[in-house]
Design goal:
The protein is an alpha+beta fold and 130 residues long. The protein has one domain. The strands form two sheets. A two-stranded antiparallel sheet has the order 1-2. The protein has a two-stranded antiparallel ribbon with strand order 3-4. The radius of gyration is 22 Å and the shape is elongated.
């Protein structure tokens, strides 16, 4: 029996495996991925964004090739000590910082040191306490 293929638009036998059909990937969901979908993470991410005023904390200090000082586009919350290294720090305020996509990639690759990011967070925590 013939059938119209939704992948290529041609007509094939029903049993024919169309090469245009997308291949399924077996992406394995890790416990870190599951954590990022939790309400606890969503709430904490919102809190950190509010603490940092939805601004990249590296850009506002004009560090590491900053293009725009008050950068509020593509803001991501970064774990200074990664979740896979220390699961217990995943929701700690002093381990989280708002960074733009550019500086987030630099922090992930180690171009921005953890110590420097921790110092920035310490300042933010003191400002937010008042």
């Amino acid at each position: 029996m013939l059938k119209s293929c939704k992948h290529c638009g041609r007509i094939h036998e029903r049993s024919f495996q169309c090469p245009s059909k997308p291949k399924r990937t077996n992406y394995k969901v890790t416990h870190v991925d599951k954590f990022r979908w939790t309400a606890a993470w969503q709430k904490k991410r919102k809190h950190i964004n509010e603490r940092d005023k939805y601004l990249c904390q590296v850009c506002i200090r004009e560090l590491y090739n900053t293009q725009q000082r008050y950068n509020f586009t593509n803001i991501e919350v970064h774990h200074i000590v990664p979740i896979v290294e220390d699961w217990n720090k995943r929701l700690k305020d002093n381990n989280l910082i708002c960074l733009c996509k550019y500086h987030h990639e630099m922090a992930e690759s180690g171009e921005i040191s953890r110590e420097e990011l921790l110092e920035i967070v310490k300042v933010q925590e003191m400002k937010h306490a008042f």
